[in-house]
Amino acid sequence: MDLNGKVALVTGSAQGLGRAFVEILLKNGAKVSLLDVNVPKGEELKAVFDQTYGPEQTIFIPCDVTSEVQLKDAFHKTKEKFGKLDIVCNNAGIANEQDWEKTITVNLNGVIRGTYLAMEIMKQQKEGGVIVNTASVAGLEPLTLMPVYTATKHGIIGFTRAMATASTICKSGVRLNALCPAFVQTNLLDSVIDDDQLAGVVKTMTIDIMKRIGPLNVSEVAEAFLQLVTDESKNGAIMKIEKQGGANYVQFQFNTELKTAPK
Ligand SMILES: NC(=O)C1=CN([C@@H]2O[C@H](COP(=O)(O)OP(=O)(O)OC[C@H]3O[C@@H](n4cnc5c(N)ncnc54)[C@H](O)[C@@H]3O)[C@@H](O)[C@H]2O)C=CC1
Ligand SMILES: CCCCCC(=O)/C=C/C=C\C/C=C\C/C=C\CCCC(=O)O
């Protein structure tokens, strides 16, 4: 897929991975709608992008992904502003085991609602679209320190795979994929390391492991994200990104009977 002239929407895009995804889309000629709950950071970033790419290439929309009204409104504003919607990245996420219900609402409900809104718009377009949901390696194997975060990321992968199959069967023209980075150097990672409430021995052990593995840079993950967005042959694929092994598609065993359309 050539990104020139394409329209994208990225949630949680004021910093970290979301910001890097926006930047790689802009570099490749797409227009991007930036959604984030952090309004000062979002506005500041929009001003930075205006300098490099021009004010018409982006729009910043204050949006909390846990609000049905705000998310719906942001999708419709994006379509109104740019005329279509080709690429959606449901990326906003937190790692707060104390406020675990909020973690579920942001990480899972936000991704599910964002996916449904994207599908609704994209399936009406002749050229379809692509949805990339940000999961994590914690969606493939458990993070002992963060059981609820782990649950949300497993949920994102299951949801994305099911929706991708349904999308193929219904011939909606929409591709769905999930991205599973290992540790990435962002504020989210720092917030977990600095969280004094987390259990001592597990925390020491996990920080040790993390130091040994070494965190990815956001740009390494953004390159993998770009690959997923542009490769039109990979509907339903789940991509894992690790510091040592790089980006690879995860192989799953599945029951092919469940993937067959009724005759
Ligand atoms: N940093 C890491 O090691 C990894 C992060 N991830 C995932 O990547 C995604 C992005 O995380 P990072 O860039 O690391 O974190 P970050 O904390 O640097 O950025 C997250 C962004 O999401 C926004 N956000 C938070 N709650 C929101 C809400 N309710 N509505 C709208 N925006 C909201 C924040 O304001 C922030 O701008 C998350 O889904 C995270 O789980 C996945 C694997 C590894
Ligand atoms: C290897 C899983 C990578 C998941 C990264 C992620 O989405 C967010 C991580 C945020 C903080 C992680 C902090 C400590 C975890 C370190 C090592 C995990 C060791 C495995 C275990 O048994 O817990």
TrEMBL record:
Q: Which Pfam families match?
A: adh_short
What GO biological process term is on the record, naming one?
prostaglandin metabolic process
Catalysed reaction(s) here are: 15-oxo-(5S,6R)-dihydroxy-(7E,9E,11Z)-eicosatrienoate + NADH + H(+) = (5S,6R,15S)-trihydroxy-(7E,9E,11Z)-eicosatrienoate + NAD(+); resolvin D1 + NAD(+) = 17-oxoresolvin D1 + NADH + H(+); resolvin E1 + NAD(+) = 18-oxo-resolvin E1 + NADH + H(+); resolvin D1 + NAD(+) = 8-oxoresolvin D1 + NADH + H(+)
Per its UniProt record, what InterPro entries does this chain match? NAD(P)-bd_dom_sf, Sc_DH/Rdtase_CS, SDR_fam
Which enzyme class, named as a word? oxidoreductase
The EC number(s) given in the record are 1.1.1.141, 1.1.1.232
- Entry's Gene Ontology cellular component terms: cytoplasm
Entry keyword set:
Fatty acid metabolism, Lipid metabolism, Oxidoreductase, Prostaglandin metabolism
Q: Which family does it belong to?
A: Belongs to the short-chain dehydrogenases/reductases (SDR) family.
Function (record text)? Catalyzes the NAD-dependent dehydrogenation (oxidation) of a broad array of hydroxylated polyunsaturated fatty acids (mainly eicosanoids and docosanoids, including prostaglandins, lipoxins and resolvins), yielding their corresponding keto (oxo) metabolites. Decreases the levels of the pro-proliferative prostaglandins such as prostaglandin E2 (whose activity is increased in cancer because of an increase in the expression of cyclooxygenase 2) and generates oxo-fatty acid products that can profoundly influence cell function by abrogating pro-inflammatory cytokine expression.
What is the protein name given in its UniProt record?
15-hydroxyprostaglandin dehydrogenase [NAD(+)]
Source organism of this protein record:
Erpetoichthys calabaricus (Rope fish)
